[in-house]
Amino acid sequence: MDWTMFLLGAGVAVVVILIDLFLQRRKSVWRLHVLGVAVGIYMPLFVMILLCIGGLISFFADRVWANRAELIDNDPLIQAEAANARRTEGTQ
Predict the structure, then answer these.
(1) How far is it, in rounded angstroms, from Cα 35 to Cα 92?
(2) Using 50, 70 and 90 to split pLDDT, how confident is the model at 90?
(3) Mean of the pLDDT values across residues 80-92?
(4) What confidence tens digit (pLDDT) does each residue in 12-41 have?
(5) Could you tell me if 46 and 33 are in contact, meaning their C-beta atoms sit under 8 angstroms apart?
(6) Is the Cβ–Cβ distance between 12 and 5 less than 8 Å?
(7) Are 12 and 37 in contact (CB under 8 A)?
(8) Is residue 24 within 8 Å of 31, Cβ to Cβ?
(9) pLDDT digits (tens, 9 = 90+) for 47-77
(10) Helices 34-42 & 4-25, crossing angle to 10 degrees?
């Protein structure tokens, strides 16, 4: 068995881990996870594209929901309705 490919893969994994540790110590918002690199190397292109599209949908959905939650938290009318609903729940 030729061990060249195994050693090359192990080398790539070590380099990715070192880069990730470097980014983590710099407290960077970007990270380089070994699993993500492995998926990128071994998965077919159409699967990677679908994963990227799903990640983008998740990213934008999280931003929309965070903005809506912030708007709700800052709206005095909604806060008053919520307080009124809590008061009426206790009386029933």
Answers:
(1) 52
(2) low
(3) 73
(4) 999 999 999 999 999 988 888 888 888 788
(5) no
(6) no
(7) yes
(8) yes
(9) 888 988 998 999 899 888 877 767 666 777 7
(10) 140
